[in-house]
Write a structure and sequence with these properties.
Oligomer: single chain
Helix content: 25-40%
Largest sheet: 9 strands, mixed
Bound molecules: ligand BES, manganese (II) ion, zinc ion
Number of strands: 18
Length: about 450
């Protein structure tokens, strides 16, 4: 309850519990928690303060702070009960793949909540985080494909994948160029599935770089350390697709995930190479570490062929996005004013922050190559690395509504509710936006 509601709530408590709260100076201040035991000394009730106003972050923190057990929310929540339950579960998330599972706090669906919707969102968020947290030796292109296949099959979607040399004939030369240096069992692939047979077409695209060494323009030690998360865009795309299908949104969905490893070998693409793209534009590889935009170029061209009503892409595309806005606030880009407004409104409503940045046309000239149609390494004068990366994508994106999210996908520090490691960003916001657009 909020501070202002505490007086009233306290009168609904039994006298001993009210006395215990008084003794502990509980006043429903923000984040205040008080555990009250029963006569046998077992935990019976948790009082949780929402301070001046309820925010979903408070419920997320609560989920991260409570010990293992079964919980039920009671009293004034001040937020949508479905969203509160999703926030709680998201705060209780742990990554336990490689050690004995730490028991989690569980929450029964609160009154007025939609249990199916809670499940769909909680599972999707956990899926994205599990994929990102899983190291590259267990989350290569093949594992990304396997997870995509399972999600597609579970919802009756039509699944297809093009792997290795077949990418060249199928018209994905940039995906092939980026991924061809990887070991044979981690060969590059283009994953695609389609679901739904009526309604507007929605394309969801995600950067699936299982590991980004930087290629021959090798990353320094510190910069490479977290690059298992460079498939975060793919994880987000699959998670959003799963929510869309689980909720049965009335759309014809296409999911496009180029999955590669940016590895180093004798056959790696070289700085200065000129590669082909699905769109027919030639790309000079100024820097082999700007690989995400190369694979997304082909994937976005494919999306355009589907003539979608809307295209969304997620990518851990640039370090510059984090320099601009920090790890917690992903930038999004779109030239569609209505879409920009809808995303901003949904991000506010879902309390899942996103910040619009501009596809500033004045920096397009930084993408000029001396010998090819475009370079993947923007000229240094333009400086705004996240903006110029988005401008590169724009050259390949569908001409209709398109939004690009340059996500970080990671909590660099841990705190209750936000464990250090993988983070899902913008998923709840975009899901809310899609519901508002299509339902
Ligand atoms: N995956 C990285 C971007 C990245 C780095 C995201 C760190 C999150 C944290 C991407 O492939 C990359 O290396 N981008 C380069 C582009 C540059 C070479 C033009 C970058 O941002 O430095
Ligand atoms: Mn890179
Ligand atoms: Zn990358």
């Amino acid at each position: 309850m909020e501070e202002a509601e505490w007086g009233q709530v306290s009168h609904s408590l039994t006298a001993p519990r009210r006395a215990a709260a008084k003794l502990a100076d509980f006043a429903a201040r923000q984040g205040q928690t008080l555990l009250i035991g029963d006569d046998e000394g077992r935990p019976a009730q948790v009082l949780f303060g929402l301070g001046a106003g309820a925010r979903l972050a408070h419920f997320r923190e609560l989920g991260g702070r409570l010990a293992a057990g079964e919980y039920r929310l009671e009293g004034p929540l001040g937020v949508d009960p479905t969203a509160a339950a999703v926030a709680f579960a998201s705060g209780a998330y742990r990554f336990d793949r490689y050690r004995k599972a730490t028991p989690q706090a569980h929450l029964a669906p609160p009154e007025g909540a939609d249990p199916g919707l809670i499940r769909a969102q909680v599972h999707a968020l956990a899926l994205a985080r599990d994929m990102i947290n899983t190291p590259a030796n267990d989350m290569g292109p093949l594992q990304i494909e396997t997870i995509a296949r399972e999600i597609a099959e579970a919802h009756g979607a039509a699944f297809q994948v093009t792997t290795g040399e077949a990418l060249l004939e199928a018209g994905y030369p940039a995906v092939h160029a980026v991924g061809r240096a990887a070991a044979a069992h981690r060969s590059p692939r283009m994953i695609e599935f389609a679901w739904g047979d009526t309604g507007p077409r929605l394309a969801i695209v995600g950067k699936g770089v299982a590991f980004d060494t930087g290629g021959l323009d090798i990353k320094p030690t510190a910069g490479m350390r977290l690059m298992k998360k460079d498939m975060g865009g793919a994880a987000h795309a699959l998670a959003l697709a799963r929510m869309v299908m689980a909720a049965g949104l009335p759309v014809r969905l296409s999911v496009l995930v180029p999955a590669v490893e940016n590895a180093i070998s004798a056959d790696a693409m070289r700085p200065g190479d000129v590669i082909a793209s699905r769109k027919g534009l030639t790309i000079e590889v100024g820097n082999t570490d700007a690989e995400g935009r190369l694979i997304l170029a082909d994937a976005l061209t494919r999306a355009a062929e589907l003539e979608p009503d809307l295209t969304l892409d997620f990518a851990t595309l640039t370090g510059a996005a984090r320099v601009a806005l920090g790890p917690d606030l992903p930038p999004f880009y779109t030239d569609d004013e209505a879409l920009a407004g809808a995303i901003t409104a949904a991000a506010l409503a879902a309390q899942d922050p996103l910040w619009r940045m501009p596809l500033w046309p004045g920096y397009e000239a930084a993408l000029a190559s001396d010998i090819a149609d475009i370079t993947n390494e923007p000229d240094a004068w333009a400086q705004a690395g996240s903006v110029t990366a988005a401008l590169f994508l724009k050259r390949f994106a569908p001409s209709g509504a398109w939004a690009h999210l340059d996500i970080f996908g990671w909590n660099p520090r841990g705190r209750p509710g936000w464990p250090k490691g993988a983070e899902a960003q913008g998923l709840l916001a975009l899901f809310a936006m899609l519901k508002a657009r299509y339902v």
